[in-house]
Amino acid sequence: MSAHDHGHDHDHGSGSHGTMGSYMIGFGLSVLLTAIPFWLVMNQTFANPQVTAFVIMGFAMVQIIVHMIYFLHMNTRSEGGWSMMALLFTLVLVVITLSGSMWVMYHLNNNMMPHMEHDMSQMP
Amino acid sequence: MATRSAIDPAFLDNDGNPLFHLGEDPHHPEGSSTALGFWIYLMSDCLIFACLFAIYAVLGGNYAAGPGPRDLFDLNLVALNTAMLLFSSITYGFAMLAMEKDKVGATQAWLAITGLFGLAFLSIELYEFAHLIHEGATPQRSGFLSAFFALVGTHGLHVTFGIIWLVTLMVQVGQKGLIAANQRRLMCLSMFWHFLDVIWIGVFTFVYLMGMLR
């Protein structure tokens, strides 16, 4: 939707497509935020894998926000705030789905036969 | 009738009968709500991926004494794949910038480059899948592999349809030029394409990188 065909579309359409500068900033940041986690895992920089896991999760979260801002042009004003509203609602559902599933299914294998994995590995 | 005369004339039709709906539909310019509607579609798509990620989180450790992520994944290949998708994202951005300047040729060229990067991504992914299946790591092998193929396969399917959509739009732009309707379609595909890149961030972090840490 370009600015010149409907005057008032510019306000509540997702009118702003960004500029060359903003795309390049977004691209630079996302290259950096992708390369560092790969480098951390490939070189095993941290001795403790748990630390690496938390660090790369942090990088992923920051990169998602960078993509939202620089590539998807999210802001609190577009569509009169409704796209941000939809995004926040979706985020709540995503968090409930992910954390809820992992919490409820945490004991999934508790009642399995002991040493079952060992037995299975002896099978042809 | 007495009750009728009490009604505001704006809510009566020409014969004096009360109206139970708006006399005239409020005017919205064509396509003014497309962006929000498409955004809400993407959010629903996001929930599909959230469910698949949840399945992977729950079943990702169930190897059934079969191969695990460390035995299967090649991070160099995944890094290359990620680069392809990132490049396709920025080239789509360039296509949108060219579209804003009404440059049909440049828009088409950047769209074509985006499509090629998308095809490269798909080819690498299919090569990886073929390699896994050849090694016996099929979706039937274990819960981990079922969840892996469901999640990564669904993303790949989205990219496939994105490329089909992209080619369709290139034909439409070729025929009609950058008319308002085509600009709107390109904007929707832009959101779709960048959204797939956002999902891929989750895939390479949670599936591939964290898989290598297990």
From TrEMBL, chain B:
Chain ranges passing through the membrane: 38-58, 78-97, 109-127, 147-171, 192-211
Domain Heme-copper oxidase subunit III family profile: 36-212
Pfam families linked: COX3
Location (main, coarse): membrane
SUPFAM superfamilies: Cytochrome c oxidase subunit III-like
Subcellular location: Cell membrane
Membrane topology summary: Multi-pass membrane protein
GO CC terms of this entry: plasma membrane
Domain of life, source organism: Bacteria
One annotated GO biological process: aerobic electron transport chain
Keywords: Cell membrane, Electron transport, Membrane, Oxidoreductase, Transmembrane, Transmembrane helix, Transport
GO molecular function: cytochrome bo3 ubiquinol oxidase activity; cytochrome-c oxidase activity
Function: Cytochrome bo(3) ubiquinol terminal oxidase is the component of the aerobic respiratory chain of E.coli that predominates when cells are grown at high aeration. Has proton pump activity across the membrane in addition to electron transfer, pumping 2 protons/electron.
Family from the record: Belongs to the cytochrome c oxidase subunit 3 family.
Subunit-level organization: Heterooctamer of two A chains, two B chains, two C chains and two D chains.
Descriptive protein name: Cytochrome bo(3) ubiquinol oxidase subunit 3
Organism listed in the record: Sphingobium xenophagum
